[in-house]
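Hypothesis: this fold can be encoded by more than one sequence.
Test: take the structure tokens below, design a sequence, compare later.
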């Protein structure tokens, strides 16, 4: 799939956002607004979505344009990996989501794991830092960095045995541990099969350094 249009739209949006952040000349501001409108038009046209939705999506973006940060918790129990089922698409993924302002990446991933699975953990190692665009994910309007953290369970053994009861969460409706060759259908916008394979390799080789693009 040729996604050149997506790169054009995102780069134009970033140019416009930075220009609107730092520009002071009213004529320059007008030009940057025109550039943003062009980015919106490209995105809406090629993605076949309502232009108003794209305009609203980018209108709230302020300050210097940078990639967004998606944190994912990699939680093993023996040789099984923790996954959660997303309500949005009914598919499975590593627990995680956007990092929030005023929290460290480690704090963000621990929070996300708990909010989506109910498991208490501590982040112990950054296993991988990937550019989402380079790993085969479906297209996304934002440029995203994905951070995969090894998180150790701090729950008691008794607490780990109640997966079936851990379903009352806002964004997820299933929580379970899976062996490497028993993976359910994955939510590809959030995690790719090759990433799961690589994380199991990290699990078997704890001394490996962090992967990064």
């Amino acid at each position: 799939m040729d996604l050149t249009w997506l790169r054009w739209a995102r780069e134009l949006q970033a140019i416009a956002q930075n220009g609107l952040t730092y520009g002071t000349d009213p004529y320059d501001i007008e030009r940057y607004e025109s550039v943003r409108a062009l980015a919106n038009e490209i995105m809406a046209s090629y993605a076949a979505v309502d232009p108003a939705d794209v305009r609203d999506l980018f209108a709230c973006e302020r300050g210097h344009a940078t990639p967004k940060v998606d944190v994912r918790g990699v939680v093993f129990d023996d040789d099984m990996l923790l996954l959660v089922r997303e309500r949005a698409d009914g598919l499975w993924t590593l627990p995680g989501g956007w990092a929030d302002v005023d929290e460290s990446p480690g704090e963000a991933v621990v929070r996300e794991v708990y909010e989506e699975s109910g498991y208490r953990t501590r982040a112990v190692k950054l296993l991988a830092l990937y550019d989402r665009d380079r790993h085969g994910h479906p297209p996304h309007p934002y440029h995203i960095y994905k951070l995969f953290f090894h998180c150790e369970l701090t729950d008691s053994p008794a607490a780990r045995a109640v997966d079936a009861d851990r379903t009352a969460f806002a964004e997820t409706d299933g929580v379970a541990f899976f062996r490497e060759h028993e993976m359910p259908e994955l939510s590809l916008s959030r995690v790719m099969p090759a990433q799961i394979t690589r994380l199991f390799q990290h699990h078997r080789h704890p001394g490996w350094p962090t992967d990064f693009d």
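The chain has a mean pLDDT of 90. The domain at 68-212 is CATH 3.90.79.10 (Nucleoside Triphosphate Pyrophosphohydrolase).
Hypothesis status: open.
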